[in-house]
TrEMBL record:
Its cofactor is FAD. Pfam families: BBE, FAD_binding_4. This is FAD-binding PCMH-type domain-containing protein. Keywords: FAD, Flavoprotein, Glycoprotein, Signal. InterPro entries: BBE, FAD-bd_PCMH, FAD-bd_PCMH-like_sf, FAD-bd_PCMH_sub1, FAD-bd_PCMH_sub2, Oxid_FAD_bind_N. GO terms for molecular function: FAD binding; oxidoreductase activity. It comes from Lupinus angustifolius (Narrow-leaved blue lupine). Transmembrane segments: none annotated. Residues 12-186 form the FAD-binding PCMH-type domain. Belongs to the oxygen-dependent FAD-linked oxidoreductase family.
């Protein structure tokens, strides 16, 4: 089973009535029609990275439709595009592009084992977003199987459905078979670096300055700030402290990057020895924390077993700089949680501020400084451990309330969080419940998604705990 979260691999986890491994698009059509006829819900899994497991577990009888074998990738460099089947991983996409060209790329996530079907339909962001936007901003066609078993492309599905599946979550509307993506241009070599600073080394001042400049830097640079807890040894004593890693991707050479950073962010103290010039495809592995020099074939690796550890993700959007005293409190609290929680702060600006919030269902555009991903992970098993760490996760999330977006407190669909609302059991759906999460994921676009759903699946066959309901439900 392609599951990437230990908390859904326990023996008591809900099991499907069957797993249908789709080897051909006709298998998808047959599964939909059979399940519909027999009143059985389906869960659609491409990469298995759904952070709440909603693509492969449920509290009602269900069948898993596993898209993983449908993984072909057809790269057309002449037309700067590619057809990517839903089960292909993002790492495979990067690899196949690189086999054809060293000056083309695709804006998508850092984790290479993400499935293209779900990752792209939820929005899909990565370190090219300040230059080229997110994945759905670079989708030019798609194939989807609808509730009646029809295979539709962009023309036959119509503008509304094509709009909805690009960031609204495809599983509310049908089964994504494939995406036609637009390739983007990158330099033959890009420059990357990681600079790590603890609280004792001035991390708080650096993070505060980062908030002021990261969105205003040229769009060729993406500078993420990762907050975590590390052990440091001083005078023979080991203690835990908070550390911030500034990790960058720059579409250009080291000389240009040094000039840029040392002018805009001299406090970072960036040196030439911190930087490495590598092909873009190699940078995708670097960002995944693989050592420099790792063969690009590593992008093709897919875990054979479920992950042994468990995790919980959440997200926030920040619109105003967080004051220094609050930053200190945040990092101090991270240390109290003993290294089980970390944050990744992803800067906006550039292209993200140029695209309208209604262009796709993904609404998080101008007005945001950065996106926060919270990641809580643990290795212990059992319900008690799970509840303990989920409480830590929720407690930290509540602590962050004063510093993040409000009315609604926005969230990113790809960082699925059932804590912001959901239908339980999933066969009971309502507009009022759906608004609780829909307004946070989609803001004002939620109403349009409901209208599209009502048009293409008015009987609400495609549903799950956080799906888009039709007006009649």
């Amino acid at each position: 089973m392609h599951t990437h979260n230990g908390r859904f691999s326990y023996s008591e986890a809900p099991k499907p009535l069957a797993i249908v491994t789709a080897l051909h698009e006709s298998h998808v059509q047959a599964t939909i029609l059979c399940a519909k006829k027999n009143g059985i819900q389906i869960r659609i899994r491409s990469g298995g990275h759904d952070s709440e497991g909603l693509s492969y577990i449920s509290d009602v009888p269900f069948v898993i439709l596993d898209m993983f074998p449908l993984s072909s990738i057809d790269v057309d460099i002449e037309n700067e595009s590619a057809w990517v089947e839903a089960g292909a991983t993002i790492g495979q996409v990067y690899y196949q592009i690189a086999k054809k060209s060293n000056v083309h790329a695709f804006p998508a996530g850092v984790c290479p084992t993400l499935g293209a079907g779900g990752h792209i339909s939820g929005g899909g962001y990565g370190n090219l977003m300040r230059k080229y936007g997110i994945s759905v901003d670079n989708v030019i066609d798609a194939k989807i199987v609808d509730v009646n078993g029809n295979i539709l492309d962009r023309k036959s599905m119509g503008a509304d459905l094509f709009w909805a599946i690009r960031g609204g979550g495809g599983a509310s509307f049908g089964v994504i078979l494939s995406w036609k993506i637009k390739l983007v241009s990158v330099t033959p070599k890009v420059t990357v670096f990681k600079v790590k600073k603890t609280i004792e080394e001035g991390a708080i001042d650096l993070v505060y300055k980062w908030q002021l400049i990261a969105t205003k830097l040229p769009q060729d640079i993406f500078l993420r700030a990762v907050h975590e807890v590390v052990n440091v040894t001083q005078k023979g004593n080991t203690k835990k402290t908070a550390q911030v890693t500034f990790i960058a991707l720059f579409l250009g050479n080291t000389e240009k990057l040094l000039t840029l950073v040392n002018k805009q962010f001299p406090e970072l103290g960036l040196k030439q020895s911190d930087c490495s010039e590598i092909p873009w495809v190699n940078s995708t592995l670097y960002w995944y924390n693989a050592p420099l020099g790792t063969p690009i074939e590593a992008l093709l690796d897919v875990p054979k077993e479920p992950l042994s550890f468990s995790f919980k993700t959440m997200s926030d959007y920040v619109k105003k700089p967080i004051p220094k005293d609050a930053l200190k409190s945040i990092l101090d609290l991270l240390v109290q949680y003993d290294g089980h929680l970390k944050m990744e702060w992803n800067p906006y600006g550039g292209k993200m501020h140029e695209i309208s919030s209604s262009e796709t269902p993904f609404p998080h555009r101008a007005g945001n400084l950065f996106l926060i991903e919270y990641l809580t992970n643990w290795g212990e098993v059992g319900v008690e451990a799970k509840n303990h760490y989920l409480n830590i996760s929720r407690s930290f999330f509540e602590f962050m309330t004063p510093f993040v977006s409000k009315t609604p407190r926005e969230a990113f669909l790809n960082y699925r969080d059932i804590g912001i609302g959901g239908n339980t059991p999933s066969n009971v759906t309502s507009i009022d419940i759906a608004k609780s999460y829909g307004s946070k994921y989609f803001n004002r676009n939620f109403e349009r998604l409901v209208r599209v759903k009502s048009k293409v699946d008015h009987e609400n066959f495609f549903r799950y705990e956080q799906s888009i309901p039709p007006l009649s439900h």
